[in-house]
Amino acid sequence: MSAKKLTQGPALGQTLYTEIKAGFVRQNTTFSAWCESHGVKRQNAVTAVLGGWRGAKAQKLVRQIIKAAQIDPQQKAA
To answer: Which of 10, 26, 52, 59 could tie 47 with a disulfide, CB 3.0–4.6 Å?
Structure first.
């Protein structure tokens, strides 16, 4: 994913969250397991993914999660 800002509304945030969870399941792991292994509180990660936090740190965290989940959020938007 590029360094540009992620922009999302509530519906896109929920769709992204669902895709992220599915991405981890396809890898035989979970979103919660990734959060725990990276020292991230799951609740904070969910809030960032859903768009509740939109600062630089939240954007970076969301990009890391997307990369780890091995999904392409732009593919759904096209």
So the answer is: 52
